[in-house]
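INFO  loader      accepted 1 record
INFO  loader      residues=469
INFO  predictor   begin
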Amino acid sequence: MTLAKAQVEQILDEDTSSTVGVLVQVAAPEQPDLPVDSTIGLSAREALPARVRSMLRGRAVPGVPRLPATPIDTIRQANETALAQVLDSDPARRNRVGAAFWTSRTAYLEMDRDDLTRLLAEVPGVVEVHPNHQLTLPPVARTRELPAAVREDSAASWGITATGALSVWGAYGARGAGVTVGVLDTGVDPSHPDLEGKIAKWAEFDARGEQVADSRPHDSKDHGTHVCGTVAGGDASGQWIGMAPEAKLAVGLVLKGGSGTAQQVLAGIQWAVEQKVDVLSMSLSAAVFDHEAPNVFSAAFLTALRAGIPVVAAIGNKGSQTGASTGSDFFSLAVGATDHRDVPAGFSGGQTQVVAESELIRPEFLPLIYTKPDISAPGVDVVSAVPDAAWEAFNGTSMATPHVAGAIALLLSAVPSIRDLSGLDRAFFLQDMISGAVDELGEAGKDSRYGFGRLNVLRAIALARRSQH
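INFO  predictor   done
INFO  writer      dumping tokens
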């Protein structure tokens, strides 16, 4: 039985309604040659690719080529052509198509149960069929009283100090200038004194994945403003809250009031890629308890990587041996949460995952077994902005994720020669530097609590500068 057929049968078993809405994905026009190396048992530095390790030692590795870079416009044209198989194969079906997304080669279809049963026989090239499931904010708790050690670090929110961001500002004069960070969340309060003038781009998407006309920046809850503050907030309160306070933000509202559909999120990812953001931050998920993570976002994440954009995603707040539909994906840079003592948060997720079938990964690498998260960062007692010119301390992997996205903004700001790289080369280099420079904590090698270890952006910049000279 093919993967798509098994998915259709499961959808029909679980959804008894007469009309079913599904996300239909067509085959990739070509399979990129991805580096799929096992990191099991390796330390963070040992896990760096051979080419990067050789750069750090000052000599090249003969015969190790750069990763192939395909222009993003070429990828778009090929994917749109592949999508036309679904959209144009039947005029009646064309009328039931909602939004279609070239970044994931996915179209949303509403059809009756019999039509869905016949879909795979009638439409060539369909490789996966997913339900349009709901995604939400990972549960976030507010801190009632900050620990004394956190209160005493009054110059900056403690994560800014612990990750080395304050030191980067002084040592390299880098604060994120010239970098745009994409944030998909509940929106943002653009009038907050820590974020005024920093919202460079804005879009809102409805449940069908359509962009809402005439929408203006706003936060439909408070989560998005908090996340944006940790990425790029200033010191309007007298305390620095943002990792990269001179970075700009491209904010997509995909979780109105705190929840949204997979279709909304796919729309937001495509919008961020088209805006040419430098890094994408996603503090949203559906909980994952199985070791085989859903791959509804895999193709979109891979397209972002091929455009040179790392996708930083929360691993979720359901605790050890759980995952998240974004953070558990093989192609995301997944983030777990630690507290000011460098202890993993009890809520922070992470587990061993497996990809059994995938058109994106060559058969010789399957089944692919890997561990998430990839890295951990401050996610407990994190003070940041909330709407109406206020500040609060939140707890969650949602709070850890923007620390890592902001760190990538600092890395690009401090080492501008990284922009000479393109496509997968750039995206993987950024991810490798961030995960390879961590403070290694917990078990030897990568584990499901810390990943490779806790974020250290000062060391990441030092490693990157060495490799670029």
